[in-house]
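pasting for the record
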Amino acid sequence: MLTDRRALVPLVLVAVALLVVLVAARGAGHATAMPATGEAAGLTSAAGVSPPVHRTAHPQRLLPVVAPPPGDGGYAFDAVGHGRPALWDPCRPIHYVVSGTQPFAGANQLLAQALSEASAASGLQFVSDGPTSEAATEQRPAYQPSVYGRQWAPVLVAWTDAGHIAQLGGPAIGLGGAATATVHGTPRLVSGIVYFDAPELSLLALRADGYAEMRTVMLHEIGHLLGLGHVADPTAVMYATNTGQGDYNAGDRRGLAASGAGACSRYS
């Protein structure tokens, strides 16, 4: 029988460290795998398989750089290679698709609002590619040319359950993270996942504070998608446990601003 886990234990917001295994970049040297960090690996690409790489002329940011709040620190990055964090390319939108049936009326709208908040805080643009029939899997390929063409697969947002994703069988109701690849010496985030336990969200939707709780969960997992890791500050959305934080705090916002402050890549 499904129960509301918050009546038993706090909701644990789990990061998924996602690994791209030896992806080769055609026509532009080669890409090397980034090490997996965090709790688990969730996104893979067959060795030697990746999209063709094209040189991009005069790339420009899609959104302005976001000025971080005053102060220092308060955030951490999940994936770091060659002494620097892996970041999304701010000159290209982060495409995403959604699978599964929304667990409550307005779930897709709440997700879009959370993505909009993360976009405003990071300076990275999200673009919805609509629904997909692709189901959530424990090891999702980062490159699926037969499904999405010869490009990195869009981020998969899935309304799923513990029957499909074992890590959702414990106190966690959300998983998020990104896949990394290094091209021409620069680590990049290239694809990702954001998975939610739909049955648990449907129960949360019945609570008086349920929508606020779910918003925090979504902001947390989107933070992981943008490269942020857990922090020790219990007032931060990127703290490992949902304690009713609500909005991103100053440390979260410094991290999000940093996640979107990377240089535009010269290669697609």
